[in-house]
TetR/AcrR family transcriptional regulator
Amino acid sequence: MEGDKMINQRKKRSDATHNKAIILQTTTQLLAQGEDISEMNMAEIAKKAGVGVGTLYRHFESKSLLCQAMMDEKVHDMFDEMDTFLHQHQDATVRDKIYGILSIYLDLKEANFNVLNFIEKSNSQHQSMINIPFYEQLKDLIKDQFTSQQQTQDLEFKIKLMLNSFSSDFYYFAKHDQQLTKDQFLSRLLDIFIG
């Protein structure tokens, strides 16, 4: 009797893990096909994943959390790429290191603009880059570059102000209204904050 109960529990856990993987795989495929997940409701996402709406909500209580889960691996890979970049450019200037970090971040942002924009705006009433889940990790990585050169005056404020320039609304404005390339955007931004 106890053995049957344990088998049923393992099967339920296995099914739950499988369902979660199917949901993430489906939403990732939809995104790759150009679908705007932020425009879809949870019932549509559940239907496309072949699971019930209750199952979807059991794994992700909001579309924002679903989008964050979709981005987790990409964000992890982004930070790995940043670590590799910093290791390969240990002797670079603070400006060059921060340029490299932010360039890698913008690659992720441009490839996943709609999803990151949705996450930013879903996490708070404020439209600010600070609302992305990995903001603190990105801020700390940039802060480490400054503190290695003892450039610490108003550092926290400068970094927060600089990173808020990467909000989806402002970055969209810079790219489309001002028609700045990624490199022009980064260069102008760093001219202001680093010199």
